[in-house]
Amino acid sequence: MLETEILGMKLSNPLFLAAGILGTTSSSMKMVARAGAGGIVTKSFSIEPNNGYDNPTIVKIEGGVINSVGLASPGVEAKKEELKDLNEIRDKTPVIASIYGDTEEVFCDVANRTKEYVDAFELNVSCPHAKCGFGSNIGEDPDLTYDIVSAVKNEIKDVPIVVKLTPNVTDITKIAKSAEDAGADALTLINSVGPGLRIDYKTGKPILNHILGGIAGPMIKPIALKCVYQTYKTVDIPLFGVGGIRNYKDALEFLYAGASLLQIGTSIMYEGPSIFKTISDDLAKFLEENGYKNVSEIVGLSHRL
Fold first, then answer.
1. Which of 76, 110, 117, 161 is the 20 to 30 Å CA partner of 304?
2. What angle (nearest 5°) sits at the alpha carbon of residue 41, between those of residues 218 and 99?
3. Phi-psi domain of 183 (left: phi exceeds 0; alpha: psi -120 through 50; beta: other)
4. Contact (CB, 8 A) for 86 and 40
5. What is the pTM (predicted TM-score) of this model?
6. Per the omega criterion (within 30 degrees of 0), is the bond before 190 cis?
7. Torsion sign, CA atoms 274, 280, 283, 284
8. In 3-state terms, what secondary structure has residue 79?
9. What kind and span of H or E run contains 173?
10. Which CATH superfamily is 4-303 part of?
11. pLDDT digit string (tens) for 173-194?
12. Is 127 a catalytic residue?
């Protein structure tokens, strides 16, 4: 009932691990696959190793977290070894590599070095706490987004390209359309909101070492839903919905809004990896009880009512 096939990936369910959570080592990603995830998105990586920002990098807030890891990455060669080790699970749990860079050449180089070990790429052009030249510095500009996506698509013709978008723009549909026009095969909506700030009430100092960070978790769900809903009406390519999904009711909202696939990240901090099986079981039960034959029947339902 939850089985689906999108971008050439055969999935047991539409729930993916989102980039940034438990996606660093092959052992942690295999553990998530065993826990019931339909697919995996790795933590973002680029060519060179990057230590990111110094701790503290994550602070809890009501309804989520603020994080400022700074795109910490072991570099493409180290990541390639982790990806190789995931080959044994890819027949049942497809793997999407989240990659980042500051130029077209960097994105293409990273993709070329790892394309034989993944089922798709997710281009991170949306991180709100990346260093200058990375992340949302690209994704806030439709022209830069177009250039990056088209370059990777022209270079990597046999692996699907997914583009992860930032909500921190005036009109996300313009960025979405630019990515689609450049050849994107799917879009992920959304990356974290912000950046935001939290201050220690005792000392008066910002808690995060980098001061500002991206806001993630259940509190951003209404923003993510809005972005999915609006973008579904603008583009003709599949959407991944991500942002505050904690139970099957949240998953249903994203599916109704137009997401074909879903990603879960911050909520793992609350529920643990078992969240994938819990949501899958509850979602399947809901579909059966309400007379649906498969999950694709409810994708975009809100637009048809």
1. 161
2. 110
3. left
4. yes
5. 0.95
6. yes
7. negative
8. helix
9. helix 172-181
10. Aldolase class I (3.20.20.70)
11. 999 999 999 999 999 999 999 8
12. yes
